[in-house]
Amino acid sequence: MNIVGDWLYYVDGRSIKRIQFDGTDKETIFDIDYPYNMQIQGNWIYFISINAHSNIYRMNLDGKNLERYLDVFATEFTLYDDHMLFSHGADEYDYRQTVEKIDLNDQSRTVLFHGNNSGLIEWDGYYYYTNDNSKLIRRKISEPAEPEVVTKALISSFTITDSGIYYGLDRTYQSGMYRIDLDGQNEEKLNVKSNLIDGLNKVEDSVIFRINNMNRPSEN
Questions:
Q1: Which of 15, 74, 78, 210 is packed most tightly, with the most Cβ within 10 A?
Q2: How many Å apart are CA 196 and CA 134, to the nearest integer?
Q3: pTM: predicted TM-score of the whole model, two decimal places
Q4: Can you tell me the distance from the alpha carbon of 212 to that of 220, in angstroms, rounded to the nearest whole number?
Q5: Burial 87-117 (b: 16+ CB within 10 A, else e)
Q6: Residue 193 and residue 169: Cα distance in Å, rounded?
Q7: Which among 15, 23, 16 has a CA at the least distance from the CA of 6?
Q8: Mind listing the pLDDT tens digit for each residue in 116-155?
Q9: For the chain, what is the largest distance between any 2 Cα atoms, rounded to a whole number of angstroms?
Q10: DSSP string of 72-94?
Q11: Model confidence pLDDT, tens digit, residues 48-89
């Protein structure tokens, strides 16, 4: 989900939709593909096109001027004010990912590192992500250094805020939600119980997430 002005943008199956906060003016602005990892920056909506070899596409906020932005087999990306971080492989069978940074103004690209990752976030001088063992990792942005393990717990999903890292555990029985400092210190368990917590995301001053309890439908 993304918020722009009075609009909430979200993916519903193969469609991208938007609706005003008061529940009026619901619109479908895209419905010809299976969009994945939708994010908004400025006047553009970016997403991965599943049907188009997982290339990254973009279009205006009203669904017009659709164009291919990156011809790569992308697994995910994250947008910032003036750049995008994205992970990709040579094809759908290439499991060793390359992480790159692209300038949104001049489209110049820089390779950052190689290795499988998920949920990549740039924050306060570090890149944070989960590796292929589902452990939370961070590595310095400014200089080459060995990645650090932030927590040895297996992570299902995480997000970062000014008050620390919020995450759910990769388990199937009462995983709960936790908060730790950026360096992995002062872990605390929060009063949220679920068999699985995922989809964690920071939206303005709040953290939104999805819970899935055994024998009960998913809740947001």
A1: 74
A2: 14
A3: 0.81
A4: 9
A5: bbbeeeeeeebbbbbbebeeeeeeebeeebb
A6: 11
A7: 23
A8: 888 999 999 999 999 888 899 999 998 777 899 998 888 8
A9: 50
A10: SEEEEEEE-SSEEEEEEESSTT-
A11: 998 889 999 999 999 999 999 999 999 999 999 999 999 998
- Residue 156: both structure tokens together: 């299902």
Residue 56: strand, helix, or coil: strand
3-class DSSP string for 92-155: CCCCCCEEEEEECCCCCEEEEEECCCEEEEEECCEEEEECCCCEEEEEECCCCCCCEEEEEEEE
- Enclosing H/E stretch for 57: strand 55-60
Q: Rounded to an integer, what distance in angstroms lies between the CA atom of residue 217 and that of residue 128? A: 31
Which pairing describes strands 196-203 and 188-189: parallel, antiparallel, or unpaired?
unpaired
Q: Dig out the tokens for 203 from the structure.
A: 């939206």
Query: Any bridge partners for residue 56, and if so which?
Result: 48, 70
Alpha carbon dihedral 216, 134, 82, 202, in 10-degree steps, equals: 30
Amino acid identity for residue 180 in this structure: I
Q: Provide Rg for the chain, Cα atoms.
A: 18
CA distance 182 to 145: 17
Q: Is-contact 139 128, C-beta < 8 A? A: no
- Comparing CA positions, the residue from 154, 103, 107, 149 lying closest to residue 126 is 149
Q: Quick one: tokens of 173?
A: 């029985």
Count of beta carbons in the 10 Å neighbourhood of residue 51: 11
Query: Are 141 and 120 a contacting pair, CB within 8 Å?
Result: no
